[in-house]
Amino acid sequence: MMTKDQYLARAEAQDDWAPGWLAIDAAFEGLYPGVTPRHLASAMPARAIFGGEEYLDGCSLYPSPNGYQHLLTYGMSNLYVDAEAFGGDFSGWGYEMTMKVRASDPDECNWALNSLRNLARYTYTSKRWFEPFQFISGRGQPLRIDSDTLLTSYVVALDTEVGGIDTVHGRVEFVQLVGITQAELDWIAGDGDGASERAKDLLQRIADDGNPLLVTDLSRARSYV
């Protein structure tokens, strides 16, 4: 890890240096060597820093050989030079979000990208972040509007393929959103304590049923509760 003096010198010498972004890219290049993902950048005027409603700088979609699109956010962690953030325990919110969507075409993932954008906006405006084994209610609405999918909500896991990284701004985990049905959400939420243990149990049931990478498939008809 570089010293702060080295960090400042590099920032001075390279005005477009984005150490956090590069660290994220390196983590995914390790999983997808030689693959150029489709990257969707947020329009500058739409970004929150300029008064807009977009809290992500962009999202990348990596085509997995296992038949899904691996979605990745940029913007929950410190992406650019920030001397005050150097050497922190956590970079930004301490994570970036991922999702694995059963789709051969990135264009089939627009609903998932909208979810990620909305969740980023929620975190930045409410100051509430996500951790593994939490659940995110979709209030009974299908994850993809105007579809007949049974998936209405998410449970949060650590990404099953890309581990967390230590960056110059602190730790970044990759938290994966996994689509679940309303019945599964109701079971996790339950009454009283134990929601995180039930979420962990549900993820294990999904993994054990031939889906160890926890891919979200809108056509899933089976309930695991």
Describe the fold and architecture.
By secondary structure, this protein is an alpha+beta fold. The chain has one domain (4-208). 28% of the residues lie in helices and 24% in strands. The chain is built from 5 helices and 8 strands. The protein has helices at residues 4-13, 19-31, 110-126, 182-189, 195-208, and strands at residues 38-41, 58-63, 69-74, 90-101, 135-136, 151-158, 165-167, 170-181. Strands 1, 2, 3, 4, 5, 6, 7 and 8 form an 8-stranded mixed beta sheet that branches. The protein is globular and about 55 Å long. It starts with a helix and ends in a 17-residue tail after the last helix.
Number of strands: 8
What is the rounded Rg? 18 Å
> Gap between N and C termini, in Å?
46 Å
Query: Helix fraction?
Result: 25-40%
What percentage of the residues does DSSP assign to strands (E)? 15-25%
In terms of quaternary structure, the protein is single chain
Number of continuous helical runs: 5
Order of helices and strands: HHEEEEHEEEEHH
Mean pLDDT score, rounded? 95
Total domain units: 1
The main β sheet shows up as: 8 strands, mixed
Stretches where pLDDT falls below 50 for ≥5 residues? none
Structural class: alpha+beta
Coarse shape: globular
Summarize the model shown.
The chain is of the alpha+beta class and 225 residues long. The chain is built from five helices and eight strands, in the order ααββββαββββαα. It has helices at 4-13, 19-31, 110-126, 182-189, 195-208, and strands at residues 38-41, 58-63, 69-74, 90-101, 135-136, 151-158, 165-167, 170-181.
